[in-house]
Amino acid sequence: MDVLVRVLADLATDWRVAVRIALLPTLVVLVADTLLQTGGPDQPFLDPRNLFSMISFYGLVAVVAVAWHRHQLLSEVPAGVVPRVNWFRAIRYFLMWVLLGIGIMLLIGLPLLLVYGALSVLGADPILLQILEHSVTTDWVNWASLGGVLIAVLIWLYTVLFYRSAMGLPHLAVADTWLGIRASWAQTRPLAGQIAITCVFTTVLICAYATVSSYAWANFYYNWEAAGETWVVNWPVVLAMVAGFLLLDVLSVLIGAALLTVVYRATRPED
């Protein structure tokens, strides 16, 4: 549990700097995302507004993470109430993070597709669909179901593989060079057990955040206007949601950045 304790200790010790790094960028992205979600709960996933929201959030993660890495490892402080941003460095961080995440999803997803294909050939489709039906609804996941447990295990596996493979990200933030996945895996081997345990904590946070977020957006963001047969934004509730999600987003982004920083600082070779 040393890694988790160190993460929480770093954030508690430097909470003022953490707020200056993360608060304003997160608020800007959250407000923009809120204003874009105007198409009702049936807004298509690939709607340009949704794609912009995802890209802006990933960009937020890159800006905040780079600033936190550089503060913790190089003692760089924010410029007033905003992080110091080298856009070239942040864009490289963003691209490498997204590519690494896609690679890990493929690594996990392709074997699952093969298993699903084999079970389908054996005629297990109705069973699989029944498990899915009892596990996932339009606005939440039943984590107590078999499918919910499987999703949680896959999230845990993803986070373990990510933090074992992602030492190139903080290295890129402070040294402007990339550290390969194989080198990252070897570098983090001494902390493999602690990373796996810490990722149980991060998985619980991810599952809780996903449940609260999806349920809130699906049930409170809109009101159905029967006369005009349209979805109308429920602004008083939305403002309360923005305040709540501001805290959740700041914490989630900072915890991820702090975990990468702690592992990198503990395992990097001495200069």
Secondary-structure element order, N to C:
HHHHHHHHHEEH
The Cα radius of gyration reads 20 Å
Strand order, largest beta sheet: 1-2
Give helix % range. over 70%
What's the helix count?
Answer: 10
Q: How is the biggest beta sheet arranged?
A: 2 strands, antiparallel
The overall average pLDDT, rounded, is 82
Low-confidence stretches: none
Note the overall shape: globular
Number of strands: 2
- Percent of residues in β-strands: under 5%
Structurally, how many domains make up the residues?
A: 1
Structural class: mainly alpha
Task: Give the termini separation.
Answer: 27 Å
Task: Give a verbal description of the structure.
By secondary structure, the chain is mostly helical. The chain has one domain (2-267). The chain is built from 10 helices and 2 strands. The protein has helices at residues 2-13, 15-36, 48-74, 87-121, 125-133, 146-165, 168-175, 181-187, 192-219, 235-267, and strands spanning 222-225, 230-233. The protein has a two-stranded antiparallel ribbon. A hairpin with a 4-residue loop joins strand 1 and strand 2 (230-233). Helix 1 (2-13) crosses helix 10, helix 2 (15-36) packs across helix 10 and helix 3 packs across helix 10 (235-267). The two termini are 27 Å apart. The mean pLDDT is 82.
